[in-house]
Amino acid sequence: SPRRRRAPLRAFSGPVAAFAGWGYVWLGEPEASLEVLGEALRLSRRFGFWRLPTLGGLGLAAVQAGRDAAALAYAEEGLRLSTTYPTLHRIRAAACAHLGREDEARAAIAEALRLVPDDSISTGRARSGYADTPATRRWFEGLRRAGLPG
Q1: What are the b/e assignments for 117-133, b being 16+ CB within 10 Å?
Q2: Residue 65 in contact with residue 95, Cβ under 8 Å?
Q3: DSSP H or E segment with residue 71
Q4: Closest CA to 53 of 27, 17, 11
Q5: In whole angstroms, what is the distance from residue 33 CA to residue 113 CA?
Q6: DSSP E strand boundaries for 10-148
Q7: Tell me: the pLDDT tens digits for 43-95?
């Protein structure tokens, strides 16, 4: 169980919690990720360096968990800080695709591809070594529906 593997959240600094939370994203354990990244967000300063990747992890984990409206909120908050972080556009794309908002999903994936022209589902899997779980399959299914090439 993920709970037995984790140190108490109070032992984490913001960056350590962010790294740990992203690890849970890649393992396909969104509930653990949301908990740890939520703590990372609390520990980060309002506009500290770790806020942006923490919002990205929260958004991706929210898509994995089927919390697409929350994923959009995390992505939008992150996009107010930076429009050049492609993960935020991928989160918007996957969440919108799962919500049936096809035009928005396609527009978000087009922006992600503008930033990373050779991006695809296979490069995304290879880049982060995602575990094959229902949560990670949901993430990639959203990206596929949004138009990210295979």
Answers
A1: eebeeeebeeeeebeee
A2: no
A3: helix 68-81
A4: 17
A5: 26
A6: none
A7: 776 557 788 999 999 999 999 999 999 999 999 999 999 999 999 999 999 99
Report CA 50 to chain centroid distance, whole Å.
14
Tokens read off for 73? 């909120």
DSSP code, position 8: P
Query: pTM of the entire structure?
Result: 0.89
User: What is the distance between the alpha carbons of residues 21 and 33, in angstroms, rounded to a whole number?
Assistant: 4
> Hunting for tokens 């929350």 — which residue is that?
70
CA distance 7 to 108: 36
Helix, strand or coil for residue 61? helix
Question: How far apart are alpha carbons 109 and 55 in whole angstroms?
Answer: 18
Amino acid at 28: G
Residue type, 59: G
Q: At what angle do helices 51-64 and 86-98 cross, to 10 degrees?
A: 20
Which one-letter amino acid corresponds to residue 99? L
